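STRUCTURE:
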């Protein structure tokens, strides 16, 4: 079946994208406005885009045309944010922070979440989160009237001690993090516990003639 994106409405295009590009990691973003009012919300249009410099990107939409989501407004205002990653035990709290609250609502309070201070940025990190990245805004790429891609440079990463396998060599026990990913529809998620390993093939090995 061919779905020609020029011939279908925006909500159908969105549906096709989010029901096929799965699982998507979730950035649980803590930001604050110029007055210091805190905000938290999850975003699954999220990934890492470079290691050097360390860059993450988050696609942020609007609550209504011309009314960008509070996270984006805050990040444009103060240029700082924290990306917390979501483990399964935090799923329900994360879902509370996704409620379309009025601007100025502190979703961290609504969800009963405690925070810890960040080192380089003003917004705090979520205490229960296994991984938190302190970020500063590089730029917002305007993607249309209702969407923007927030690009952030990661200044520091906090990993809970129990998930660090070898600090000197920066080895994290990824499987133990228990992170979840967003799947299709409004409410489906995936666990990251069904893993398999496949080492990369060095070119020299690929070219070696078979004996
Ligand atoms: C798991 C999950 C992922 C989400 N991903 C996105 C996303 O990538 N982009 C987006 O604009 N909204 C996304 N949302 C919806 C926002 O979290 C929601 O609109 C939230 O109220 C925005 O809050 P804010 O206005 O405080 O920034 C997602 C919601 C959930 C539950």
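SEQUENCE:
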């Amino acid at each position: 079946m061919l779905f020609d994106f020029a011939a279908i409405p925006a909500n159908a295009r969105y549906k096709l994208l989010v029901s096929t590009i799965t699982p998507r990691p979730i950035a649980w973003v803590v930001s604050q406005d110029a007055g210091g009012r805190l905000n938290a919300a999850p975003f699954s249009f999220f990934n890492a885009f470079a290691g050097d410099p360390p860059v993450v990107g988050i696609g942020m939409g609007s609550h209504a045309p011309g009314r960008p989501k509070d996270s984006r407004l805050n990040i444009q205002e103060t240029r700082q944010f924290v990306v917390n990653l979501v483990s399964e035990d935090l799923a329900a709290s994360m879902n509370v922070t996704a409620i379309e609250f009025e601007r100025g609502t502190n979703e961290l309070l609504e969800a009963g979440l405690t925070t810890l201070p960040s080192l380089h940025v003003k917004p705090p990190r979520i205490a229960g989160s296994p991984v938190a990245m302190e970020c500063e805004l590089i730029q917002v790429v305007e993607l249309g009237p209702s969407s923007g891609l927030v690009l952030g440079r990661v200044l520091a990463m906090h990993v809970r001690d129990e998930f660090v396998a070898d600090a000197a060599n920066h080895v994290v026990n990824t499987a133990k993090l228990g992170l979840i990913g967003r799947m299709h529809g409004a409410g489906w998620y995936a666990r990251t516990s069904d893993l398999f390993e496949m080492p990369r093939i060095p070119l020299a090995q690929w070219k070696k003639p078979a004996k």
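REMARK: The longest strand covers residues 131-144.
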